[in-house]
């Protein structure tokens, strides 16, 4: 391998490393924003309850609750892969359907 070819490949490698660092930085910024948004949504004094607890209150199945969520009839929040409901929203919905 001659010197010119070596330096050309070396500079290409440096460019690729810079690109990876840029992508890493952007990814970290996105993750930080997501972390802040999920943290902020669950820091209020409001009580959040699970799907099973919500089903008990509404006296419905998880499938029925899923349909309510799908049809935007009951608000919910997502923390990672976990679905949570504000207890007050559940009771408000319950009062609306009566």
Residues in helix, %? 55-70%
End-to-end distance, in Å? Answer: 81 Å
Specify the structural class: mainly alpha
Q: Report the biggest beta sheet as strand number plus sense, adding barrel if it closes.
A: 3 strands, antiparallel
Mean pLDDT across every amino acid position: 86
User: What's the Cα radius of gyration?
Assistant: 24 Å
Provide the succession of SSEs: HEHHEEH
Query: How many individual helices?
Result: 4
Topology, element by element:
Elements: H1 3-41, E1 48-49, H2 51-58, H3 62-70, E2 77-79, E3 82-86, H4 87-97
What would you note in describing this structure?
- With 98 residues, the protein is mainly alpha-helical.
- It has two domains: 1-41; 45-98.
- The chain is 68% helix and 10% strand.
- It contains four helices and three strands.
- Strands 1-3-2 form a three-stranded antiparallel β-sheet.
- It is rod-shaped, with a radius of gyration of 24 Å.
